[in-house]
């Protein structure tokens, strides 16, 4: 079977998470992705590039961030500041469908590889720019990063510690969201390109992605007089939804309950009075106002049994409940195994485990074709496909224009 995006060529100028995650999705779906990398595997100020860093395990210098976001790509290590290097890249773009970059606004223009320069050699090119705050506006020159977008968008205040300190989401959530929204924009542009032959500029940013992901909360806030969402402690999953909705302590761990309409059933299993009939909790609004009291009573009942014991009773009863898993338990879960979410790749650093694309397509399934590449692993291969004279290729290597 072929991938849905077979025949689509992507020139990838991305680093870290937002951009690489997006281009990896395109690669998983069958696109050919050529990752443009620095000639030296260090940044201009001497720091290791995105591929290297603190070892993830003894004997491996590869960072999990790189391994997690760069499969199904070929690596071309090339100096795009050198005129000959830039000429090679423009040759690639001339026969490409899409350019994807996540530098600060203006960087690619200064390198001679902005949208206008790419459109000169390929009028049909799709050019995706992924930034922190957008291509223009008062923050255009500010550094953009996942944590900063969480802070600016209000996402960082969704949960707080017991002392009132805001708690950021413990993963690169706005990077992932920005990557997914970037893929949506890229796919829409590809459809338009195939239909009309026209390319276009696509822009996506971390701040807007974080706001879009909070649409339910923000629309509630803007269109009601309830005010800011409830943020007393980090256990609450939704500031505008009353309990039981969150993670609650059991005898041996935690259980997730999403059961506002099943309070009577839960209380019956717990062997306590039906809290939905208690005058403090008998309406949606009262449960919001008296959330802590409700949850104290609930957790006192849940403390009688283990999480697994409660699940054995709640799930057959139709109650919306699940275990709050560690990574170890999540990866060992039979449903996770059934869905094939863990992939195994053979890599120069050793065999690595990766998380698969969570999309199934019956006729054009995503596939793992290439492990995350070594630095410059495919440089000669890509140059040969451009029919560059062998003597010129060797000159480029000797001058360290490519590696």
Written account of the structure:
- The chain is an alpha/beta fold.
- The chain has helices at residues 18-28, 64-69, 83-94, 107-110, 115-121, 146-153, 173-196, 206-213, 215-222, 263-270, 284-289, 291-302, 307-314, 327-332, 334-338, 379-385, 390-398, and strands at residues 9-13, 32-37, 52-57, 60-62, 74-77, 98-101, 126-131, 200-205, 245-249, 254-258, 321-323, 342-345, 352-355.
- A six-stranded parallel β-sheet has the order 5-2-1-6-7-8, with helices on both faces. Strands 9-10-11 form a three-stranded antiparallel β-sheet, with helices on one face. It has a two-stranded antiparallel sheet with strand order 3-4.
- Strand 3 and strand 4 (60-62) form a beta hairpin.
- Helix 6 crosses helix 8 (206-213) and helix 7 (173-196) packs across helix 8.
- The protein is elongated and about 85 Å long.
- The model has no long low-confidence stretch (mean pLDDT 92).
- Keywords: Transferase.
- It comes from Pontimonas salivibrio.
- One of its GO terms (molecular function) is CoA-transferase activity.
- This is Formyl-CoA transferase-like protein.
Largest beta sheet: strand ordering: 5-2-1-6-7-8
Helix-and-strand structural type: alpha/beta
Rough shape?
A: elongated
For the biggest sheet, the summary is: 6 strands, parallel
The CATH topology assignment of the largest domain is Rossmann fold
Task: Quickly give the CATH architecture of the largest domain.
Answer: 3-Layer(aba) Sandwich
Could you tell me how far the N terminus lies from the C terminus, measured between alpha carbons in angstroms? Answer: 34 Å
User: What is the strand content?
Assistant: 15-25%
Number of helices: 17
pLDDT under 50 segments (min length 5)?
Answer: none
User: SSE order, as H and E?
Assistant: EHEEEHEHEHHEHHEHHEEHHHHEHHEEHH
- In oligomeric terms, what are we looking at? single chain
Radius of gyration: 25 Å
């Amino acid at each position: 079977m072929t991938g849905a995006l077979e025949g689509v060529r992507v020139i990838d100028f991305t680093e870290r998470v937002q951009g690489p995650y997006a281009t990896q999705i395109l690669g998983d779906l069958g696109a050919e992705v050529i990752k443009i990398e620095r000639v030296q595997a260090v940044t201009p100020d001497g720091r290791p590039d995105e591929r290297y860093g603190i070892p993830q395990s003894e004997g491996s210098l590869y960072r999990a961030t790189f391994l997690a976001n760069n499969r199904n790509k070929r690596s071309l290590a090339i100096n795009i500041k050198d005129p000959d290097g830039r000429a090679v890249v423009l040759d690639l773009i001339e026969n490409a469908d899409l350019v994807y970059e996540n530098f600060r606004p203006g960087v690619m223009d200064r390198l001679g590889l902005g949208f206008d320069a790419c459109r000169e050699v390929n009028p049909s090119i799709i050019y995706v720019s992924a930034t922190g705050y957008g291509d223009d506006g008062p923050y255009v020159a500010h550094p953009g990063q996942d944590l900063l977008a969480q802070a600016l968008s209000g996402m960082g205040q969704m949960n707080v510690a017991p002392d009132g300190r805001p708690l950021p989401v413990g993963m690169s959530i706005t990077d992932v969201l920005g990557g997914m929204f970037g893929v949506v924009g890229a796919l829409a542009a590809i459809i338009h390109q195939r239909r009309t032959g026209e390319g276009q500029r696509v822009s996506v940013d971390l701040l807007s992605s974080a706001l879009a992901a909070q649409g339910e909360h923000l629309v509630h806030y803007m269109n009601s007089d309830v005010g800011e969402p409830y943020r007393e402690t980090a256990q609450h999953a939704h500031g505008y939804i009353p309990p039981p909705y969150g993670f609650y302590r059991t005898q041996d761990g935690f259980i997730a309950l999403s059961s506002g309409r099943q309070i009577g059933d839960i209380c019956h299993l717990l062997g306590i009075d039906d809290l939905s009939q208690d005058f403090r909790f008998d309406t949606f609004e009262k449960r919001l106002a008296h959330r802590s009291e409700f949850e104290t009573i609930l957790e006192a009942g849940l403390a009688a049994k283990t999480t697994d014991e409660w699940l054995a009773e709640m799930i057959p009863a139709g109650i919306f409940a699940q275990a709050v898993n560690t990574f170890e338990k999540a990866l060992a879960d039979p449903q996770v195994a059934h869905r094939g979410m863990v992939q195994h790749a053979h890599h120069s650093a050793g065999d690595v485990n990766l998380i698969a694309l969570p999309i199934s397509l019956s006729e054009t399934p995503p596939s793992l074709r290439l492990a995350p590449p070594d630095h410059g692993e495919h440089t000669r291969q890509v140059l040969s496909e451009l029919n560059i004279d062998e003597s010129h290729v060797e000159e480029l290597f000797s001058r360290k224009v490519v590696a």
